Amino acid sequence: MDYKSIIERNRENYLESLFEVIRQKSISAENEGIEECAELVAEKMSEAGVGHVEIIKGAHHPVVYGEHIVSEDAMTLLIYGHYDVQPPDPVEEWDSEPFEPVIRDGRIYARGVGDNKGQFMAQILAFRTYMEAHGNTPINIKFIIEGEEEVGSRNLEPFIHKHKDKLKADLVYTSDGPMLSNGHPYILLGVRGMLYVELNAEGSAFDNHSGNKGNIARNPVWELVHLLGTMKDADGRVLIDGFYDEVKPPTDLEKELLMQLPFDLEEIRKEIGDDSLEMTKEEYYQKLCFEPVLNISGLVSGYGGEGAKTIIPSTAKLKLDMRLVMDQNPERIYELLEAHVEKHAPGVRMKRIGMMHPSRTSAEHPYIEPLRRAVEKGFGKKAYIQPSMGGSLPDAVWTKILGAPSVVVPYANADEANHSPNENLVVENFYNGIASTCMAIDALNEL
């Protein structure tokens, strides 16, 4: 079936449907427009022909759920996305209104267009396209579009537990994040987990003069700096006892897949903004997919303004985030960190800000290669397979609670600037995403 001709015939209608969803603000951090956007997404699902659509309200922001069941014996595909977006700040750095989409040089500019409205709308419109082409789908399709991803999906796990039977599926398909920097699509088979921690150190009851009370008043910044020195060696290896106990090396197939991925050191240097970076392809993907990270996100204390202010700060705050690989457990890693802090800086207080479990689907799963070919056909470019992405998504809720394999297939361009001013999506990526989803349905049906 020539899905692209149907997409071309509906090109303007599809684009306007996306624009309508973008115009509806849905800033989860500020609880702005959430209810209205959930209702609009439900409306778009119904318009696409999804037979049963409902808005399920829970502890926080509502979830939009839709299902099209053709047979109890047919395989079931569960499509996940999120309708909430980041705040547009700083607004003055946008070249156009954040919530009024405009097209410039073949790209749509608007908050949420890449992350994640343009991607889940491509999937909803793919369902509409498939129904127009065939009158029905050969497999069961379910949609779950949530409204809390940008604030950590904190209620998604209990939601999945509560509605486990309703959400039962053979495969979970997510389109989120950017494609490869060379514009090629790829299938991600997992995510790194995350643990975000805040550490607080206290000295005197108030700031002191560094001359009058130097060598007398305690400086909590030094306490945190010395503590950090015990956490990592000069080669970047984490020194927390037990940190690497569950880390497994990649399989031979995973190594082979990594070496097939494109690699351009100059392009990576530009993306990072560091011309001094030296790394081979093997090192790059090994570190990105299979090694955990201990990162300093922020260290706040004392005076940071113009000129000088000679003080001994009374407090210091440290933010750490850790990206964890299969099979590291963020709860256990927190306990290990807690023991490390107690040993080296017992006066420092710890607080867990958030966590997410790592997740991985086997590269040998029979769904993977047919999906790769479908996406390759949809975009008209070679598609790759990457065993894990460097970032974190709530993927473990599918693999560990539902017990279903899960793939992430990004439709957004690598320079989408999500979370930043002038977020954008290449127009053709939107349409190619629609075609790829249709072809993915065909590929799964053939299995």
SS-based class: alpha+beta
Second CATH tier, the architecture of the largest domain: 3-Layer(aba) Sandwich
Task: Round the mean pLDDT to the nearest integer and report it.
Answer: 96
Stretches where pLDDT is under 50 for at least 5 consecutive residues are none
CATH superfamily of the largest domain: Zn peptidases
CATH topology of the largest domain: Aminopeptidase
Strand content: 15-25%
* Estimated helix fraction: 25-40%
Number of separate structural domains: 2
* CATH class designation of the largest domain: Alpha Beta
Oligomeric form: single chain
Terminal-residue CA separation: 18 Å
Alpha-carbon Rg, integer: 24 Å
Largest sheet: spatial strand order: 1-2-6-3-7-18
Number of strands: 19
Largest beta-sheet characterization: 6 strands, mixed
Please state the overall shape, judged from the principal axes of the Cα atoms. Answer: globular
Quickly count the helices: 14
Keywords: Hydrolase, Metal-binding, Protease
Domain Peptidase M20 dimerisation: 190-347
Protein name: Acetylornithine deacetylase/succinyl-diaminopimelate desuccinylase-like protein
GO molecular function: metal ion binding; peptidase activity
Summarize the structure.
The protein has 447 residues and is α+β, with helices and mostly antiparallel strands. It has helices spanning 3-9, 11-23, 34-48, 113-134, 156-162, 164-167, 220-229, 252-260, 265-272, 281-290, 330-344, 368-379, 396-402, 427-446; strands at 52-56, 63-68, 76-82, 102-104, 107-109, 140-146, 171-174, 186-188, 190-191, 193-202, 208-209, 293-301, 311-312, 315-324, 349-356, 359-360, 384-386, 406-408, 424-426.
